[in-house]
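Records of this kind hold a single protein each, on a pair of labelled lines. Below, a sample record shows both lines together.
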Amino acid sequence: KLGSIEEEFLERLMPGDRFVLGGKVYEFVKTVRGFTAVVMPAYDEKPTVPSWFSEMLPLSYDLALEISRLRGKMFEWLEKGVRGQKIVEWIMKNCRADHNIANAILQYFTEEWLYLKSRGVRKYPSDRVLMVEVFVDEDGKKYVVYHALFGRRVNDALSRAVAYLAGRRVRRNLGIIVGDHGFAIVYPPGVQVHHSYLMDIKPEDLPSVLKKAVERTELFERRFRHVATRGLMLLRRYKGTETSIRRRQFNAKKILEAVRELREFPMVKETFREILEDFMDVKNAMEVLRKIRKGEIQVVMLRPTKVPSPFAHNIVLQGMSDIVLMESRRQMLARLHNMVMKVIQRESYAIQNGDN
């Protein structure tokens, strides 16, 4: 026995996923007897599953859209050359932030704006623009980062659908990193990246794609146990004795093997509904896809780079830095920031020389 992990974390794992336990990286193989995860050492590999965030409440879709509109407003002001002090005062008044925080927000947006300008980008992330960038790390692993500020539940649905379609095409298991401010699909070195999956998904097809993506996962098996228990197919108590969760999970797996193909079976239908509507937010994810189809949200794709934009740093760090201490994470973030500043300064120097 190597240690223990939370059940909610286990239900997110898929074969081939790598995670950190006790400071070491392990690759998930399968579960046996319901509650035992079989792993193999992957000490020389980087984790593909980000840090656990069970205590964090997801950002709501409506609030996420408001933040997206704020992004658009900030970039619009920077493009028009609005004075920094005026922007800081607006942030302090409307966001209830003190002067230091308002300055930090302005600096954050300014660096993203200058970085994107240095790459020839003229449309910036907002409620009307979904930017996709590809970061290639030192090992050749590719992070396709979607700057989708829709909240974690919506992004969970979109990312699983994209990863499922992309994985079928390249015939590999792909890593997924999900956050409130976006998500990333992680491709192994040497695997060709395709960007168009998000635009290819029809809104009405999303539920069926997600059902295919989750039906063979730990998530589905464990949610089925909860549903079967509520539906009295599994008993919490038998002959006066409370049954163990391990036993209920084992029995749930046996029942699921018998009824899995019966899509209209009430417990199977309810499990799919619970995952798509409660765990994820398929309704608003479909709304995002409709907006993309109608042109209300434009998808802007950037060329691959070895320097991720400031907005991508948090997502990239989730996938890269589970094996290092918090102090090292700060150092890694500082290194990414320095790389961005060098790109900005190099572009500024080139412009100045061009003017001369």
Observations:
- Confidence is low (pLDDT under 50) at residues 349-356.
- The first helix runs from residue 7 to 10.
